[in-house]
Design goal:
The chain has two domains: 2-89, SP0561-like (Orthogonal Bundle), CATH 1.10.3910; 110-280, nmb1532 protein domain like (Four Helix Bundle (Hemerythrin (Met), subunit A), Up-down Bundle), CATH 1.20.120.520. It has 13 helices and no strands. It has helices at 2-5, 9-15, 18-25, 40-47, 51-65, 71-74, 86-89, 110-134, 141-169, 179-203, 207-239, 242-259, 261-280. Helix 8 runs antiparallel to helix 11 (207-239), helix 8 (110-134) runs parallel beside helix 13 (261-280) and helix 9 (141-169) runs antiparallel to helix 10 (179-203). By secondary structure, it is an all-alpha fold. The structure holds fe (ii) ion (FE2) (2 copies). One fe (ii) ion binds next to helix 9, helix 10 and helix 11.
Length: 281
């Protein structure tokens, strides 16, 4: 089993497709991840399941990897001579955790909470995108302005402000070669590519392409934020010292000063006004 713990998840899933369904049941959505070379042991550690869930998950993965009929062939250390099922016989590898959570409710440190709060505003915009698409009219000045304002929000608030705090500050406290960090960077880049495509499509009045890339951005960021809120941030929080949490808080405050209150305010106003507008039109 040890060798499978140290195997990239995409390779493991292609060898044992059932593992994908098992992970999905535990809300461990590795399939959409573009990198996919995270090791099974890192994935289990990052998602910080309860000890019971982790044991059950590992038992099910072990069963998928070592069906009873193949046990003797694949691992000579496993004795199935008396017909014992693998989940009862195989000793689960212990995965080191900094601290096991007692409850499912996530408590973030103050600087990470700031990022989660920023996600909340970004998600409000993502929720509006289908309605914006439905009512999209690029033949009018007003309709084109709505797309431009949406792009301004993404570029200023979601990217220059929020993603920059992650890339330039938070992620620097961790090993940048980790697949989970690389996957987050890749998502940010894919988001930027969608935005460039929206602007280009608007210039040539290509409504179909605007819709395609607005939808692409919505899909991407919805999954990205879920991964950060539910897995990455809690995992990072567990790895930060109290001193580092303090440093992060101060650095985030500096970043907020740098971008300027008026930009943040303009972005908040855009979301509130678009919410109103989508109700009216
Ligand atoms: Fe991010
Ligand atoms: Fe984020």
């Amino acid at each position: 089993m040890e060798k499978y713990l140290n195997k990239g998840i995409k390779d493991l899933i292609s060898e044992f497709p059932e593992v994908r369904d098992i992970l999905n049941e535990y809300n461990i959505g590795c399939v959409p991840c573009s990198v996919g070379s995270c090791l099974l042991k890192d994935i289990v550690q990052i998602h910080n399941l309860s000890p019971e869930d982790e044991e059950e998950l590992m038992a099910r993965i072990t069963r998928a990897i070592y069906p009873v009929r193949n046990l003797a062939k694949r691992d000579s250390n496993i004795d199935i001579s008396n017909g014992v099922y693998p989940d009862r016989k195989i000793k689960m590898p212990k995965i080191k955790k900094k601290a096991a959570t007692e409850s499912k409710e996530v408590k973030y440190s103050p600087p990470i909470q700031k990022l989660v709060d920023e996600h909340a505003l970004i998600k409000k915009w993502l929720v509006l995108i289908p309605e914006v698409i439905e009512k999209l009219d690029i033949e009018t000045e007003d309709g084109r302005k709505l797309v431009c304002d949406g792009v301004y929000f993404i570029r200023s608030y979601a990217d220059k402000f929020h993603h920059a705090k992650e890339e330039d500050i938070l992620f620097k406290y961790f090993d940048g070669t980790l697949d989970i960090i690389k996957a987050m960077h890749e998502d940010h880049e894919t988001g930027r590519a969608h935005v460039r495509a929206i602007i280009e499509a608007l210039e040539r009045k290509d409504k179909k392409a605007i819709i395609e890339h607005l939808n692409g951005y919505k899909e991407l960021l919805t999954g990205h934020i879920k991964k950060e809120d539910e897995s990455l941030y809690p995992w990072m929080d567990r790895g930060l010292s109290i001193q580092q949490v303090g440093e992060l808080f101060a650095k985030f405050n500096e970043a907020e000063e740098k971008i300027g209150k008026e930009v943040v305010e303009r972005c908040r106003k855009f979301v509130t006004e678009t919410e109103q507008r989508m109700k009216i039109i």
